[in-house]
Amino acid sequence: MKKRNSIRGFSFISFAVATFSLALVGLQNSSPEAKALTIEDEFTASELLSALQEGGHVIYFRHGAALRDVRPDAVEQLPNQFQDCLDPGRPLSGDGLVDMQNVGDHFEELNIPVGQVMASPACRCIETAWYAFNDVANIEVVSSLNGMPNTASYDPVDLWQNFHKLLHTVPTTGTNTVLSAHSSNIKALTGLNIAEGEAVVFRPDGKGWFELVARIEKDDWQSLTTEIR
Question: Which domains does the chain have, with CATH numbers?
Answer without folding.
Answer: 3-22+34-214 (3.40.50.1240)
